[in-house]
Design goal:
35% helix, 7 helices, 212 residues, five-stranded parallel β-sheet, Rossmann fold, alpha/beta, two-stranded antiparallel sheet, 7 strands
């Protein structure tokens, strides 16, 4: 049986292309590139949903709260070797009124839930890797998404990984910070471009080699 990895995230895991407003194809998305790097021994399951938050319900759109969905999601893909969580970008939206620390708390809480879901081999608990996405570029507010996102999203996404690292250290969860290695595109400043997907796949691959 192949070793199964679930990549659980938002539009940057789904593969949203800000240039076409559609989905990047296989061979461009970081999840599919990761599968290529890992080889035939592994199966990478893409669980990306645009707009997904870590622990809050969105008053405008249905079904985006990861906390209420992650348990059945992981159980449906069991048995799992590893769960990779990359969230936080959407949590910065002004309508949620969360601080950078609150966002980190939510992701840490979600991570703990994943770690305690019996979706591993023979009902064991899977390993979990949490990725802090690249910070939102400050120019985002001048683009078409500015009104929807609201203010200070860039600042919160810049500060969040520092808090998240400390909270995950307490619970003993693997952490990967993409800040300084990958930047968002120059269209809406909150999605990965093709180069970003390629770089992320390599970062995650190198991290996985030390986990599994």
């Amino acid at each position: 049986m192949k070793k199964r990895i679930v990549c659980f995230g938002d539009s940057n895991t789904w593969g949203y292309d800000a240039n076409t407003l559609e989905r990047f194809p296989e061979g461009v998305r970081w999840t599919s590139l990761l599968a290529e790097l890992l080889g035939d021994e592994f199966q990478v399951v893409e669980e990306g949903l645009s707009g997904r938050t870590s622990v809050v319900d969105d008053p405008l759109f249905e079904g985006l709260n990861a906390f209420t969905y992650i348990h059945p999601c992981l159980m449906s893909h069991a048995p799992l070797e590893l769960v990779i969580i990359m969230l936080g970008t959407n949590d910065t939206k002004e309508r949620f009124n969360l601080t950078a620390y609150n966002i980190a708390q939510g992701i840490a809480r979600l991570s703990l839930k994943a770690k305690n879901t019996p979706a591993g081999i023979k009902g064991s608990f899977p390993k979990v890797l949490v990725i802090a996405p690249p910070p939102i570029g400050k120019e985002y507010y001048e683009t078409s998404i500015g009104n929807s996102m609201g203010i200070n999203c860039d600042r919160k996404s810049e500060e969040m990984p520092m808090y998240l690292k400390e909270l995950l250290k307490i619970q003993g969860t693997e952490f990967l910070d993409t800040k300084g290695f990958i930047v968002m595109n120059t269209i809406d400043y909150m999605h990965l471009n093709e180069e970003g997907h390629r770089l992320l796949s390599k970062l995650v691959f190198n991290k996985i080699k030390n986990i599994l």
